[in-house]
Amino acid sequence: MAQFDVYANPSESAAHGIPYVVVVQSDLLEALATRMVMPLATMKFAGKSPDKLCPLVIVNGQRLRALAHYTAPLPTRSLRQIVGNVAVHASELIAAMDVIVAGI
After folding, report:
1. 5-102, CATH topology level
2. Tens of pLDDT along the chain (104 residues)?
3. What pTM value is reported for the model?
4. Are strands 34-42 and 56-59 parallel, antiparallel or unpaired?
5. 65 class by beta-carbon count within 10 Å (0-12 exposed, 13-18 middle, 19+ buried)
6. Which of 3, 23, 27, 79 sees the fewest Cβ atoms within 10 Å?
7. 3-state secondary structure labels for all residues of 57-98
């Protein structure tokens, strides 16, 4: 399980608007039983979101918004179905976390 790996959302009730989550936690913390993940929402579900806080991410050709303000830990065991990796969007995802933590 690598940083920026994308998984199917384990919450079936939320998967219609948030089909995926992306692991934003550093690989250096792989021994932990949880992973910090950022939800990836459909454009319709995300609505008008600030680009810096909710950057655009492409997963298998689908345009999604990363919802940095909903970043949360999930048990590693709940992340079962990997669907890709969005390391190409690493700088935007990290910048979104900076908005949350430092307001920049």
Report:
1. SH3 type barrels. (2.30.30)
2. 999 999 999 998 999 999 999 999 999 999 999 999 999 999 999 888 899 999 999 999 999 999 999 999 999 999 999 999 999 999 999 999 999 999 87
3. 0.94
4. unpaired
5. buried
6. 27
7. EEECCEEEEECHHHCEEEEHHHCCCEEEECHHHHHHHHHHHH
Instruction: Let me know: does 94 contact 55? Beta carbons within 8 Å.
Output: no
Question: How many CA atoms within 13 Å lie on the side-chain side of 97?
Answer: 16
Contact 68, 34 (CB under 8 A): no
Q: Which pair of tokens denotes residue 90?
A: 């690493």
- Residue 43 host element (H or E): helix 43-46
Domain limits, the chain? 5-102
Q: What distances in angstroms separate CA 97 from CA 45, 69, 75, one per listed residue?
A: 20, 8, 20
Residue 61's Cβ-count burial label (10 Å; 0-12, 13-18, 19+) is exposed
Nearest to 27 by CA among 5, 50, 57: 5
